[in-house]
Amino acid sequence: MTTDDPGAELARLRSSIDNLDAALVHLLAERFKCTEQVGRLKARVGMPPADPGREAAQIERLQRLSDESGLDAAFAQKILGVIIAEVIRNHEAFQGAEPGAGQQH
After folding, report:
1. Predicted confidence band at 35 (pLDDT cuts at 50, 70, 90)?
2. Are 55 and 91 in contact (CB under 8 A)?
């Protein structure tokens, strides 16, 4: 949709971007709630914080999803790399936490 008013069009597009950014933040928060549960489970049963097989499978899956969505796969892989690194860092913190300790983030 285009209009004769570039300022209005820019405002509309920026509003859409703002909404998408908010959705991304909320999705990441939900994802980290799930990975926190995984980290606590791993710590409780003595599993290592990182799972290279799972990470490789996720990267492969992300490649397919990126291709299907028209998103640059290298960019998507960078984003997933940052997320995975943070998840592992959190899982490592759970490994050293005392049972019943407060939330780690």
Report:
1. very high
2. no
Q: Write out pLDDT tens, residues 43-65.
A: 999 999 999 999 999 999 999 99
Q: Tell me the C-alpha distance between 46 and 41, whole Å.
A: 8
User: Residue 73: CB partners within 8 Å, gap ≥ 6?
Assistant: 62, 63, 66, 67
Q: What is the pTM for the complete model shown?
A: 0.78
Residue 43, classified by CB atoms within 10 Å of its CB into exposed (0-12), middle (13-18) or buried (19+), is buried
The full DSSP string for 19-83 is HHHHHHHHHHHHHHHHHHHHHHHHHHHT--S--HHHHHHHHHHHHHHHHHHT--HHHHHHHHHHH
Give, to the nearest 10 degrees, the angle between helix 73-96 and helix 52-69. Answer: 150
